[in-house]
Amino acid sequence: MSEESKDLLYEVREGAAWLTINRESKRNSISVEVIDLFDESLDEAEADDQVRVLCITGSGEKAFCSGADLGSTVGGQGADGPMRYARLLERMSTYPKPLVARLNGHCLAGGMGLMLSCDMVYAHEGVQVGTPEVKVGLFPMMISPLIVRNMPRKAAMEMMFTGERLSARRAEALGLITRSVATRELDDTVNAVLESICANAPLAIRMGRQAMAQVEDMELKEAIPYLHRRLLAVLNTEDAAEGLSAFFGKREPDFKGK
Predict the structure, then answer these.
(1) Domain-located, residue 20
(2) Within 13 Å and on the Cβ side, how many CA atoms surround 56?
(3) Same-domain pairing of 73 and 115
(4) In a domain, 158, yes or no
(5) CB neighbours of 85 closer than 8 A, spacing ≥ 6?
(6) Residues 223 and 133 grouped into a single domain
(7) Are residues 175 and 222 in the same domain?
(8) What tens digit of pLDDT does each residue of 151-175 get?
(9) What's the CATH number where 173 sits?
(10) Would 181 be classed as within a structural domain?
């Protein structure tokens, strides 16, 4: 199989690993093959010290991801496909490197699970997001915890119960996406964010992302002592010493990820 024919493309560009769902004719829906390729790509990016951030997008201009391929085992009645999708979302939530979503088109149903598992989401103004599962007799069960963690509960219930789509502007206002921009500005916006992340201390970002995942369900009295310990760990890294030295020396830091 050629690289172009794969359901998920993987490419590293200047410190950023790009994962592109490559099923434009099927609106970039999620199949078992896509899930397997996601796992492989996440493995590859995690092992590559040159990769400091991952960007997830879709091919074409119509859809970022339309959700599960209802004709595959992911969208069928068997438990294996949905379970593998659930494990992918769980892995993304604790992944050691930052995840950015570039919404090139509409993001629906299970596609929102991928989107909301990312730390930052950028969409052009023509994008719509939503959970239309109820319109075909289903419900966004596995992604509902991600939804209610990212937007007000009552607005989440309205979206899930009605199945209506939200505009990019509305999604931004509700906290589902980081920023909506003009279509012509999407690539420049995403590239600027990726470049900025790549310029910062990779180990500090990695430790910070993992710490944030750990404290999400902690009470404050547990979270503060835990984060204090993690701060001490960050302060003991070579990158922290280099960053402080560069700051006081008024020069650009040279982070090594150590």
Answers:
(1) yes
(2) 29
(3) yes
(4) yes
(5) 30, 35, 68, 74, 110, 113, 142
(6) no
(7) no
(8) 999 999 999 999 999 999 999 999 9
(9) 3.90.226.10
(10) yes
Give the DSSP H or E segment for 19. Answer: strand 16-21
Q: How many CB atoms lie within 10 A of CB 154?
A: 8
- Contacts with 108 (C-beta within 8 Å, 6 or more apart), sequence order: 63, 65, 66, 67, 128, 129, 130, 131, 132, 165
pTM (predicted TM-score): 0.91
Does 257 map to a domain? no
* Cα within 13 Å of Cα(73), Cβ side: 12
Number of domains in the chain: 2
Residue (of 124, 126, 106, 107) closest to 115 by Cα position:
107
Do 216 and 114 fall into the same domain?
no
Do 65 and 92 share a domain, yes or no?
A: yes
Q: Are residues 229 and 181 in the same domain?
A: no
Instruction: Determine the residue type at 107.
Output: C
Nearest to 65 by CA among 35, 92, 91: 35
Pair 78, 91: CB distance under 8 Å:
no
Q: Are both 46 and 170 inside the same structural domain?
A: yes
Report the distance separating Cα 68 and Cα 88, nearest Å: 13
- List the catalytic residue out of 3, 33, 40, 133: 133
Least confident of 78-82, 142-146, 240-244, 246-250: 78-82
Query: What are the pLDDT digits (tens) for 63-73?
Result: 999 998 877 65
253, 242 contact by CB (below 8 A)? yes
The alpha carbons of the chain give a radius of gyration, in whole angstroms, of 19
Residue 245 belongs to what domain range? Answer: 201-249
- Domain co-membership, 131 together with 100: yes
Residue 133 designated active-site:
yes
The residue to which tokens 């939200």 are assigned: 166
